[in-house]
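Progress note, sequence design subtask.
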């Protein structure tokens, strides 16, 4: 199971205690990483008691976990832990786990930087953790999403000595515009935003660029605009054509114009957010961010995005395309079409994982040596970095080893 901090339960819950058993302090899926007065835990195993409290957030009550107790030591600040098993005491044993989105932030390593880009000034919220001298892995999120989409793969990457940087695009609850007009969400503007962000924090080289979902179009634009990356990985990436939750595009374009209209805008801002079920029923802390998803889809030029992938094929940049047969947002056919466009052979260059995340076809060692390769998961949905964190982290590290040779 992936690392989680916030528990959504039914409305009738008011109190809950989650008992988490962990093992293998530094390696494997069931890691725990935390801080107490004495520093990083050194025990081989420990019992963790997380005390939670409720807040009145609809449609669910949210149970926040601001403190944890390990061997009678208590702290309110902790980093990433992976759940081995959890037991919920209450009237119901169902506990749905989602990333924390409250002011009681379970990730303490979040920074801000002022970035000037495209004639505007942004307050960019981002996470920059790991070995300062290590190879840089830059992860960019989709829409709607945030830096937290990559929390589950963080422990394995940090264990490997990676410097992990995960910025937030404006409009999805973190980064914001300080000066200037609105953010257009075009791939050109997002590409420039990332380039100027990296300049602002002093990064001139990225070993692996990882793009999830809507960031796929941004990543291909970045590859066309700049040459700071040594490789790129697309996870459930949108590219080439409209995916199932972005059709028909003309309707998104119309809705975008109506949202921006001073007369119809007030109505659209009430009507659009509940329709997130049509975007794959994405879970968001603030449903209004769905409005920005509408703008983002409306701005995409699919012919331009396909052209950027064609340019990528002509380059020597190592590329990995990852998709899932169970993705209900960006169908796996798009990942396979991108593989075709990049010259990735489905028989020789693609590694297939079954529903348990076990490779069932393809030679793993041979796959690692290929500069252009694909990966298909039978299960895992759209957020593979959450459903298969160990496998996705392994694939990122494999790419890193390839470019470091």
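Output:
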């Amino acid at each position: 199971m992936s690392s989680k901090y916030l528990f959504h339960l039914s409305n009738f819950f008011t109190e809950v205690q989650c008992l988490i058993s962990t093992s293998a302090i530094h390696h494997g899926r069931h890691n725990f990483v935390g801080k107490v007065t004495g520093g990083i835990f050194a025990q081989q195993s420990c019992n963790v008691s997380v005390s939670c409290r409720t807040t009145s957030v609809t449609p669910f009550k949210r149970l926040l976990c601001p403190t944890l107790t390990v061997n009678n030591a208590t702290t309110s600040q902790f980093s990433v832990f992976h759940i081995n098993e959890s037991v919920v005491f209450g009237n119901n044993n169902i506990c749905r786990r989602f990333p924390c989105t409250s002011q009681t932030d379970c990730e303490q390593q979040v920074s801000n930087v002022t970035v000037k880009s495209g004639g505007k000034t942004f307050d960019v919220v981002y996470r920059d953790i790991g070995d300062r001298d290590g190879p840089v892995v830059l992860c960019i999120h989709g829409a709607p999403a945030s830096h937290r989409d990559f929390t589950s793969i963080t422990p394995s990457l940090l264990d490997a000595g990676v410097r992990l940087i995960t910025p937030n695009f404006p409009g999805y609850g973190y980064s914001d515009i300080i000066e200037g007009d609105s953010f257009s969400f075009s791939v050109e503007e997002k590409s420039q935003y990332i380039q100027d962000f990296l300049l602002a924090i002093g990064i001139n080289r990225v070993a692996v660029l990882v793009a999830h979902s809507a960031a796929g179009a941004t990543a291909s634009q970045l590859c066309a605009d700049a040459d700071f990356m040594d490789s790129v990985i697309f996870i459930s990436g949108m590219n080439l054509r409209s995916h199932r939750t972005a059709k028909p595009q003309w309707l998104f374009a119309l809705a975008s114009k109506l949202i921006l209209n001073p007369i119809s805008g007030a109505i659209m801002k009430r009507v659009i957010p509940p329709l997130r079920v049509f975007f794959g029923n994405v879970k968001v802390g603030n449903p209004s961010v769905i409005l920005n998803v509408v703008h983002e889809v409306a701005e995409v030029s699919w012919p331009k995005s396909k052209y950027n992938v064609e340019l990528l094929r002509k380059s020597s940049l190592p590329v990995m395309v990852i998709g899932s047969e169970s993705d209900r947002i960006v169908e796996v056919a798009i990942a396979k079409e991108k593989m075709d466009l990049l010259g990735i052979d489905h028989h020789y260059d693609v590694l297939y994982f079954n529903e348990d995340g076990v490779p069932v076809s393809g030679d793993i060692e041979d796959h690692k040596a290929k500069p252009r390769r694909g990966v298909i998961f039978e299960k895992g949905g759209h957020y593979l970095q959450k459903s298969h964190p160990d496998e996705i982290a392994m694939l990122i590290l494999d790419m890193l080893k390839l470019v470091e040779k």
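Residues 389-404 form the longest helix (16 residues). Work on this subtask will continue into the next period as scheduled.
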